[in-house]
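Progress report, Aim 2. The chain analyzed during this reporting quarter is listed below.
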Amino acid sequence: QVQLVESGGGLVQAGESLRLSCAASGRTFNRYSMAWFRQAPGKEREFVAAISWSSANTYYADSVKGRFTISSDNAKNTVYLQMNILKPEDTAVYSCAASQQSIGLRYANRMDYWGKGTLVTVSS
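Predicted structure tokens for the chain:
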């Protein structure tokens, strides 16, 4: 079992930055690929970013590429999502997820564990 707890959400203005954290506990963290997904009100959950378990590869949705950065600190069992130049359309509940897979990380059904999420609100 892996437990995931997100933090760092909040209310910011457009153009500002936030850093989300996802702390993992349980099984060996560095053997899991990690991903961030988000779900805006009234919309389906969508992929945001992922990092393979070896931290060798990162993946981003087109909508956040160049603005968001995913990283991991295996010593702290934590994955981060640095979000810059935030836009109102980034408003959503952001959830981190863990997968034993190293491919197909854009797909929610590849994830084995989920956190409960943290709300990010970007005002215009």
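The first strand starts at residue 2 and ends at 7. Residues 24 and 103 are 20 Å apart (CA to CA). These observations will guide the mutagenesis work planned for the next reporting period.
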